From TrEMBL:
GO terms under biological process: chemotaxis
Protein name: protein-glutamate methylesterase
UniProt-listed Pfam families: CheB_methylest
Organism of origin: Candidatus Gallionella acididurans
Domain CheB-type methylesterase: 8-200
Annotated InterPro entries: CheB_C, Sig_transdc_resp-reg_Me-estase
Length: 202
């Protein structure tokens, strides 16, 4: 257990991330730039269930934050990264003064489960201005509509730039919808996200 983890009050920031093709490497770069006490991060990465546990373990060994597969109704804690399991959508909802995870076996959205759309929509609904959205490399448009909902709810949103993407589809779709506040190269994403929430890059 990360000894710096603490209950995330609903007034603090929460980071939600969507990624697909090329996302495994992009997430490694992004998460490696985060300090151990960074705000909690929830991730929907398109990846078969078979590979998710080993992927979470690999990231956990590389990153200062604690990285794990999300479980149903976990209290979301700062310093922790929650990866959507390959079999379920990942959402967040309010729980008392903080947030908790929700896993859902609802049908695929945009042909995906987990879907970025589902995660981002829950962030728009429950986190609002306290959310930061990050759209990383990926094929298709999963998450773009919900990222616009986040933007309308007051979230600050980032998209990975085309030059550093394996596939620019998902960031491009979010950009075309007007959902993105900043377009950032992958290697600078962690620093920019931290700066946007007033945390110094360590």
């Amino acid at each position: 257990m990360n000894n710096k983890a603490s209950l995330l009050p609903s007034g603090q920031r929460i980071i939600v991330v969507g990624s697909s093709t090329g996302g495994a490497e992009a997430l490694k770069v992004f998460l490696s730039g985060m300090p151990s006490d960074a705000p909690s991060i929830l991730i929907a990465q398109h990846m078969p269930e078979l590979f998710m546990q080993s992927f979470a373990q690999r990231l956990d060994g590389l990153c200062r934050m604690r990285v794990k597969q999300a479980e149903h109704h976990e209290i979301i804690q700062a310093g922790n990264v929650y990866l959507a399991p390959g079999h379920s959508h990942l959402l967040l909802e309010r729980s008392g003064a903080g947030y908790q995870t929700v896993l859902s076996k609802e049908p695929p959205v945009n042909r995906h489960r987990p879907s970025v759309e589902v995660l981002f929509r829950s962030a728009a609904r429950y986190a609002g201005t306290n959310a930061v959205g990050v759209m990383l490399t990926g094929m298709g448009k999963d998450g773009a509509t919900a990222m616009l909902e986040m933007h309308s709810a007051g979230a600050y949103n980032f998209a990975q730039d085309e030059a550093s993407c394996v596939v620019f589809g998902m960031p491009r779709a979010a950009l075309e919808m007007g959902a993105v506040d900043e377009v950032v190269p992958l290697e600078k994403m962690a620093a920019r996200v931290l700066a946007s929430i007033g945390v110094l890059h360590k």
